[in-house]
Structures are given as structure tokens and as C-alpha cells.
From TrEMBL, chain A:
Belongs to the protein prenyltransferase subunit beta family. The lineage of its organism: Eukaryota, Fungi, Dikarya, Ascomycota, Pezizomycotina. Its cofactor is Zn(2+). It comes from the Eukaryota. InterPro entries: PGGT1B-like (IPR045089), Prenyltrans (IPR001330), Ptb1 (IPR026873), Terpenoid_cyclase/PrenylTrfase (IPR008930). It catalyses: geranylgeranyl diphosphate + L-cysteinyl-[protein] = S-geranylgeranyl-L-cysteinyl-[protein] + diphosphate. It is an enzyme of class 2 (transferase). Binds 1 zinc ion per subunit. Catalyzes the transfer of a geranylgeranyl moiety from geranylgeranyl diphosphate to both cysteines of proteins with the C-terminal sequence -XXCC, -XCXC and -CCXX. It comes from Neurospora intermedia. This is Geranylgeranyl transferase type-2 subunit beta.
From TrEMBL, chain B:
Its EC number is 2.5.1.60. This is Geranylgeranyl transferase type-2 subunit alpha. Residues 84-120, 146-155 have a biased composition (Low complexity). Keywords: Prenyltransferase, Repeat, Transferase. Catalyzes the transfer of a geranyl-geranyl moiety from geranyl-geranyl pyrophosphate to cysteines occuring in specific C-terminal amino acid sequences. SUPFAM superfamilies: Protein prenylyltransferase (SSF48439). Belongs to the protein prenyltransferase subunit alpha family. The keyword Oxidoreductase does not apply. It catalyses: geranylgeranyl diphosphate + L-cysteinyl-[protein] = S-geranylgeranyl-L-cysteinyl-[protein] + diphosphate. Residues 1-26, 84-155 are annotated as: Disordered. PROSITE patterns: PFTA. Residues 125-135 have a biased composition (Polar residues).
Length: 350, 420
């Protein structure tokens, strides 16, 4: 049989065991690993809470609520929001809440900004702010907890009562508070001043003033500035240049100069580029292929780079990245909140 | 960030990646781990932060240094009993916990079994004799002082033990935010509780730690950030500090000499320069000399490694000083227009010479493109005919050598009217 390139399939094959032994088939269809293995990823995410016989499951309990946010976001973007049971999700989230309104990573874990933000994001996605009012401590209490973590002198945010400071927490605060409609509880201008102090000559932002530019921090700072309506402070050309330089030979993005490419930077870098309108400064196709090559198409999940172990964090950010890249069949993602655009529209009305 | 587990997926596949023996071993480990956890939680829920609980946290944290709640339990053990109570009138210790999972009040009063340091005897009766005319108040004061001294010795031991405890954890997980943050918290306690010379000593050792960590991984941004913080504290009045900017600048020089391609070190260097020059009270002459020295230094490095991004970023930092200095006076604000133009032209020329040996290094073309535009910006004019020809040519090379960023090259072409 002659290979006929014009007979390319119009939809990706769904069966899991695409065989390559047939030369003809491999000629006319895309390799499996360069398509999104949606159902495998859905199953992977669903399986995460059932791995209680794995030591690692218990070692990562301090990330449970965050993990739920990553998994749920991925599911929503994959078009399968129902894949995790809504009632149980809400129950679990509320069981992590403390009297002071903050959330811990899991029941019995201390309240922390990171888990609190994840909690708010999850509740927003499953449309459960009412449950927060009736069965939880209420939005106001959550807002109070978050606001209490701001240092009013410097504008910075701590992660918890013990004082660690990081622009991640500032972004988290803005993210959660704006979703709750409570951004006015904090001193936004002071926080914005702090972000400005974290800016570097290369256009990027660091963990704290003086720190080198880092893609993760750039995302948090640029997103926070966007929420605060202060994108005017960004040196768009210079930052765009720095971000575009994150794409390296394999097509993936790294986090800072001379580092390895990593799928999660498909989110941090790409969303930052999106926020400043420079997404076209990288090669989207190559990045798409890089993310797709990092899938485990058999068992589901995405890893940091091809061939590595998968995890839910990279699964979330890989899929979010693909959504930003307009990969077909995915729900649009909001580049500021890393949540479905539909959720943001419902909650913020925009 | 922690890995959420391997590629197990459904019952059938589990056995493929683990033997039954391995699985049983895992179940044992889980059992022990959870038992330990339950113990800690059980005590914490009752606000029991006794030394026994403290010992349990040591065990648990060695198994899982990312377990941030257990670090918090450990902190509460220290505050609630192992460390001395602040005496009335002295500075209060760190803010008390406000988010205990069950109780609304937190630190329990001091009814604990004696602290770890059995070497420190309980407060002695004051035995001051010999001073004629000592009043009861003087004796009281002396007793207070003695107690305070004993407290400080006790605290010092405990805090140094804590620093010691975190070292192996840090070496194994050098990017774990929780460990760095706990260490920093201990060091804050050091400042609050110990006499200044002792505190200073400990913080200086901390500087040594960051150097070690940066030897292992020169790009560890946790270590760089931590170092900046340590330096800031060492310079502060609380530690009777003076400026460390010279030695820190020297540190970046050392790091760069160990490895030119050290973006973190070059970045740190750029951040130190403004203060360095200010503290040297550098006049215009000195600033000019400094600028030229930096330019030469980076020039030499680029000659050896024209493909190295870190070097070009630093070079650009220096060039921006020539162009932007109205807004950000950093190195040599007093440069005249002629001097700036001269420097730019000189750099553009020497970079062009690089092309003879490295005609496919895209960073060279990018630098030439940028700096030619800087020159025009400086002289407030549009590119002349030759320059326009050059710019188009360099852009053409960039499009060829770096197709991934073709979107950017297209924008530059459009923005500067350089379409062929």
C-alpha cells in the first residue's frame, strides 16, 4: 500500500494502543505523543487521591489543597469539570479551614497563604462561594486572614504568621481577594510599590528587591500588577525580550538564562507574555510540541520534560500552556488567574 | 516543587512498577510515618509543646522537611518552653501564633518539665556581698541580670542546636523554601534574645553557609536571596554593623572568576554598584575609571564566550548606563554627551570585530542592533543611511539564525521602519 499523505486523519485517534509497527499508518497519522491524551490525563488526575498505598502520597500532604487546585484546573481546561465530584471537593476544601478564615493544605495543617489561595480558586471554579458563607467561615473572614498577612509598612505579604515573605504571596493575596471582591481590604498601592522595587534592569522581577529575574516571580509580579491595574509600570519591550529568550533549542521554555527547559515555564513565561501582548515573540508550534512530548500518553499526566516522571503540577501548567497556545479542544484559560476564563467571567463579570 | 507521585495508574498497572515486596515495604513506611504524624498532631491539638513533642518533630522533619505545619509545631515548642520567657521590660519575642487549628488561645503558660539544657541551673539566689551600701533593689537588679545571662546562655545553646539541625536537611534539599525560612526565623530569635557580639558571630557564620551553598550550586536563588538578607542584617544597627558592600562586590568577582557564565553573580554585581560607588564617595574621575574597568572586564569575558547570555545581559546593563542615566543615574551620571557617544561607538566597533571570528553568534547581532539604536536615541536622531543598511543586515541575520523569535524580529522591523 502506498503511503498517501493526503489521507491525514481529521481527528486524532482515540484508542490508546496506536501501533507504529505499520509503516504506512505512521506515515499518514501524527505520532500519538504529539496529540493531547485527554482521557488519559483525566483518569490520571482522578486517580491521584487513591494512591494511599504510596509513601509519596503521604509525604505530599502539605500540598494536598494545592494539588486539588492543579488537578481541578487541568480538568476544567480539558473540558471535564465533572470528573472530580463537586460535593466531596467542597467538603474537603471546607475541612481545611481554620477559625481565622485561613486554609491549611489538608485537615490538621496550619493555615497558609498558598493553601488559602488554592481554596478560594477551587471554590470559585466549582461555584461554591455560597457554601463558604453557609458552611464555612465566610468570605469576609477569609479576606480578613489574607489582609492580616500584609505588612502595612512595606506593602509585602507574608505566607503565614511566621513571616516568610515572597512576591508569590503578594500575587496570591491579590488573586484570592479580587475573586472574593475584597481587594480593598489591603493597601494595593503599597504592594504595587513593593513590586516596582523588585524590578530589574532586564525588565524582569525577582523574589524580593535585589533578587535576579525569575520567570515564576515575573508571572506573580506581572499578574499582580494586572489585577491592580498598574501594567503601566512594566517595561514591556525589555521584559518581552527577556521572556522570549526563555525558549531554547528543544522548543521548551526555561525559567532563567542557562537553565533547562521545563513544562511549568510554559505557563509562567507564556502567561506573562500574554499579559504584555508579546506571545508571538516565541515559536508557539515548537512549544506546543515540547509540551505534548512531555506527556505520558499511556498512563496520563505531564512531566517537566520528555521522559521524566509526571506529576499533577506539570499536568496543570502544561495543559494551561496548551490552552494559551490555542490547542484545539481546550477551554480558554485566564492568563492572570490560571483558571478557566468562564469561571473568571462568572465571578468577576468580565 | 514536590512530585505528586509516579506513573501508577489503576490497579493493573501498580504491580508493574512495584513488586509486592516493595509495596509491603511502602505500607510499613506509611504506617510508621502516619503514627509519628498522629502523635505530633495529638499533642499539638492539646497545646502540648513539651520537649517530647519537640523530639518528635525532629524525627518527622528528617523524614519530610517540607511538612511546614511540623516546623510550626517546633517553633511553638521553642517559644513555649525551650527558649526563655521574655522578662518584663525586655523586648517581646516573636509574634504569638494566631492560627492554631483548635484552640483560640495558643501558647500555654510555663508549666513544662525542665528544658533541654540541663547544664543551666535554675536562677540562683543572689549572693552579692562586699558592696557596701547595697540596697534590696540592687540585689534584685543583680539577680535579674544573672537570670538574664543564664537565659541567654540557654537560648544560645538551643538556637545553635536548631541551626545545626537544619544543616543536613538543607544540604539534601537546598531549594526547600520551608527550611530556609525556618533558619531565618531562628536567626531572628538570635537577634532578639542574644547579646550583640554573640548574635553577630552567629550571623557571620551564616554568611559562610551561603558561600558554601553557592559553591555547590552557583545559581541557587534561595541561597543568593538568603545571602542578601544576611548581609542586610549584618549591616544593620541591631547587629552594630557596618557596610559590607565592598566584600560583597568582591564575592561576585570571585564567583565570576570561578565561572564566567554566572548570571546570578553578574546580577548581584549590578545591584551592588550604586551603593559601592556612593560609599566610596567616588568622584567623577573614579566613576569613569570604574565604568571602564567593568567594560574591559565584561569585554574580555565576551571575547572568550560570545554565546553566553549572562555576559551580554551585563554588557547591556553597562550600556544602559550611558543611555538612560537621566532616569537612573547609576555609575557615571556626569558623563558628557560626547563621552557617551564615544563609548557606544567604541563598543559597537569592537563587537563588529567579533563577527570576524563568530559570524553565527546571534547575540552579537542583537547587541549591534540594540546599541546602534541606543546611539541614535542618545543623539536624538534617526539612523543614517549606513546605519539603516547595517540594521537591516543584522536583522536579516537574526531572522536566519534565530527563527524561533521571528515574531520579535518582525515587530522590530515594523517599529523601526526596516522592511526591505
Amino acid at each position: 500500500m502506498q503511503p498517501n499523505p493526503s489521507k491525514l486523519p481529521t481527528h486524532p485517534p482515540h484508542h490508546k494502543t496506536l501501533k507504529f509497527s505499520n509503516m504506512t499508518q505512521s506515515f499518514i497519522s501524527l505520532p500519538q505523543e504529539l496529540q493531547l491524551a485527554t482521557s488519559a490525563h483525566v483518569k490520571y488526575i482522578q486517580s491521584l487521591d487513591s494512591r494511599k498505598d504510596e509513601y509519596d502520597y503521604w509525604l505530599t500532604e502539605h500540598l494536598r489543597l494545592n494539588g486539588l487546585y492543579w488537578g481541578l484546573t487541568a480538568l476544567h481546561l480539558l473540558g471535564h469539570p465533572e470528573a472530580l465530584p463537586r460535593a466531596e471537593t467542597i467538603d474537603f476544601v471546607l475541612s481545611c479551614q481554620h477559625e481565622n478564615g485561613g486554609f491549611g493544605a489538608a485537615p490538621g495543617h496550619d493555615a497558609h497563604m498558598l493553601s488559602t489561595v488554592s481554596a478560594v480558586q477551587i471554590l470559585a471554579m466549582v461555584d461554591a462561594f455560597d457554601d463558604l458563607e453557609t458552611r464555612g467561615r465566610g468570605k469576609a473572614q477569609v479576606g480578613k486572614y489574607i489582609a492580616s498577612l500584609q505588612n502595612r509598612q512595606t506593602g509585602t505579604f507574608a505566607g503565614d504568621e511566621w513571616g516568610e515573605e515572597d512576591t508569590r504571596f503578594l500575587y496570591g493575596a491579590f488573586n484570592a481577594l479580587s475573586l472574593l471582591g475584597l481587594l480593598h481590604l489591603v493597601d494595593v498601592d503599597k504592594a504595587v510599590d513593593h513590586i516596582a522595587a523588585c524590578a530589574n534592569f532586564d525588565g524582569g522581577y525577582g523574589v524580593s528587591p535585589g533578587a535576579e529575574s525569575h520567570s515564576g516571580q515575573i508571572f506573580t509580579c506581572v499578574a499582580a500588577l494586572t489585577i491592580a491595574g498598574r501594567k503601566d509600570l512594566i517595561d514591556v519591550d525589555r521584559l518581552g525580550r527577556w521572556l522570549s529568550e526563555r525558549q531554547i533549542a528543544g522548543g521548551g521554555l526555561n525559567g532563567r538564562p542557562e537553565k533547562k527547559e521545563d513544562v511549568c515555564y510554559s505557563w509562567w513565561v507564556l502567561s506573562s507574555l500574554e499579559m504584555i501582548g508579546k506571545t508571538h515573540w516565541i515559536d508557539k508550534e515548537k512549544l506546543t510540541n515540547f509540551i505534548l512530548s512531555s506527556q505520558d500518553t499511556d498512563k496520563g499526566g505531564i512531566s517537566d520534560r520528555p521522559g521524566d516522571m509526571v506529576d499533577v503540577w506539570h499536568t496543570c501548567f502544561g495543559i494551561a500552556g496548551l490552552s494559551l497556545l490555542d490547542y484545539p479542544g481546550l477551554e480558554p484559560v485566564d492568563e492572570v488567574y490560571c483558571m478557566p476564563k468562564s469561571t473568571i467571567k462568572r465571578v468577576l463579570g468580565r | 516543587m514536590a512530585d505528586q507521585g509516579g506513573s501508577n495508574h489503576g490497579i493493573a498497572r501498580t504491580s508493574r512498577t512495584r513488586t509486592e515486596e516493595q509495596r509491603q515495604k511502602d505500607l510499613e513506611r506509611i504506617k510508621d510515618y502516619r503514627a509519628l504524624e498522629d502523635q505530633v498532631r495529638h499533642h499539638a491539638a492539646k497545646n502540648d509543646y513539651s520537649p517530647d513533642v519537640f523530639a518528635l518533630t525532629s524525627k518527622l522533619l528528617r523524614l519530610n522537611p517540607e511538612y511546614y505545619t511540623v516546623w510550626n509545631v517546633r517553633r511553638r515548642c521553642l517559644i513555649s518552653g525551650l527558649l526563655s520567657k521574655p522578662s518584663p521590660g525586655s523586648s517581646p519575642s516573636k509574634a504569638l501564633p494566631t492560627s492554631s487549628p483548635t484552640a483560640t488561645t495558643t501558647t500555654s503558660s510555663a508549666d513544662f518539665s525542665s528544658s533541654l539544657s540541663t547544664e543551666t541551673p535554675p536562677a540562683l539566689e543572689s549572693q552579692t556581698t562586699g558592696k557596701s551600701g547595697t540596697t534590696a533593689e540592687d540585689e534584685d537588679e543583680e539577680q535579674k541580670q544573672q537570670t538574664r545571662q543564664q537565659d541567654q546562655q540557654n537560648d544560645q545553646q538551643i538556637l545553635e542546636k536548631e541551626l545545626h539541625f537544619t544543616i543536613p536537611l538543607l544540604l539534601e534539599s537546598p531549594k526547600c523554601y520551608w527550611i530556609w525560612s525556618y533558619r531565618l526565623w531562628i536567626l531572628k530569635q538570635v537577634i532578639e534574645r542574644l547579646p550583640v557580639p554573640v548574635a553577630r558571630n552567629i550571623w557571620e557564620e551564616e554568611l559562610g553557609l551561603t558561600s558554601k551553598m553557592l559553591l555547590r550550586d552557583q545559581r541557587n536563588f534561595h541561597a543568593w536571596g538568603y545571602r542578601r538578607h544576611v548581609v542586610e542584617q549584618l549591616e544593620s544597627p541591631e547587629l552594630e554593623g557596618k557596610s559590607l558592600v565592598e566584600s560583597e562586590f568582591e564575592f561576585t568577582t570571585k564567583k565570576i572568576s570561578q565561572n564566567l557564565s554566572n548570571f546570578s553573580a553578574w546580577h548581584s554585581r549590578s545591584k551592588l554598584i550604586p551603593r559601592l560607588l556612593d560609599e566610596r564617595n567616588a568622584n567623577d574621575e573614579a566613576r569613569k575609571a570604574f565604568f571602564e574597568e567593568e567594560l574591559n572586564k565584561i569585554g574580555e569575558a565576551i571575547n572568550v564566550g560570545p554565546d553566553d547570555q549572562s555576559l551580554w545581559y551585563y554588557h547591556q546593563f553597562l550600556m544602559l548606563n550611558l543611555v538612560n542615566s537621566a532616569e537612573n543615574p547609576i555609575i557615571a551620571p556626569a558623563f558628557t554627551q560626547e563621552e557617551r557617544v564615544a563609548y557606544l561607538r567604541r563598543e559597537i566597533e569592537s563587537i563588529q570585530e567579533l563577527l570576524e571570528d563568530y559570524d553565527d553568534a546571534k547575540l552579537i547581532y542583537e547587541a549591534l542592533f540594540d546599541y546602534t539604536l541606543y546611539l541614535c536615541q542618545l543623539q536624538e536622531r534617526k539612523p543614517n543611511e549606513q546605519e539603516e543598511k547595517d540594521l537591516k543586515g543584522w536583522l536579516g541575520n537574526l531572522k536566519k539564525l534565530d527563527p524561533m523569535r521571528s515574531g520579535r524580529w518582525a515587530d522590530l522591523e515594523r517599529d523601526f521602519g526596516l522592511k526591505e
